[in-house]
Model the fold of this input.
Amino acid sequence: MTMSNTGGRRKPPTIHDVAREAGVSRGTVSRVLNGGHYVSPTAHEAVNAAIRKTGYVVNRHARSLITGRSDSIGFLLTEPQERFFEDPNFNVLLRGCTQALAAHDIPLLLMLAGTEDERRRLTRYITAGHVDGVLLVSSHSGDPVAQELCEAGVPLVACGKPIGLGSKVSYVAADDRDGARDMVRHLLSLGRRRIAVVTGPLDTPGGVERLAGYREVLAEEGIEYDERLVVSGDYSRASGEAGAERLLTRSPDLDAVFVASDLMAQGVLTALERAGRSVPGDVSVGGFDDSSAALAARPQLTTIRQPYDRISAEMVRVLLAQIGGEDPAAVILPTELIKRGSA
Done:
């Protein structure tokens, strides 16, 4: 750490201090800081050792003026703000993405856009270059955000396959359809035959794919699809409770419910208890996610585990590769059936 000539106050170390400590040129240090291209392994290690010894910290603003990059990533949730605090999955994904980017010394900016005005303002902010890329955590069909960012050339990776954008947008997703199939097969193995479903929003990939998996297994088993056994929710606990009440009115003989999220399944359990139905005695209940809501439920939920740590890490990996010039990519990760007390 250098000292000022006018007093004892310490000045922050500069790139010149790092170069002097490492015994290399300032240009070599600059190349290491910008990716290490055309730098020998010996010089690379010497520069990194000098950075550690001097305590040098990159001036991100100065570097952004040179590289044209902001050195930050946006985590964009296009849902009402209260959903971020209610749904535990969003927090898990945010933490995982933050940790994955920390390994690259890149900060993550949380962006909540639950209204049309908020989406419009954030789209302007993003396309103005304030972030280098976006991790899009929720996408409904007809939502213009993904389309507009894509058309503006902003590197983008969605959590789940965006509906209607084909191969234009990179995405990372759990295998929603296969997970739903595993759950419905499990409920059938328990002897259940009147299996209802509370779907996610049918303008989202998870809502569509989980319902498709449910229908496929029924068809394989020769069980007729009954629309009275199907209601949709919005992944909130309240929508699960309301959905279960509609199902019990329409089809009081139901003996199982596959619920497209653990949070909605908590609401289903509340409605079943109020109706005097025991779980799993009268009705088996299966969720989806293996979130903290599954463990907080009573009884604890049999559910489908999404590999959130891997989803977060892959979203970051694919986005950084795209920022580096690679083409869009798609990653689909396997799910796992987790058996607990509800089914």
In short: Residues 5 and 177 are 68 Å apart (CA to CA). DSSP finds 14 helices and 14 strands in the chain. The radius of gyration is 25 Å. The first strand starts at residue 2 and ends at 3.
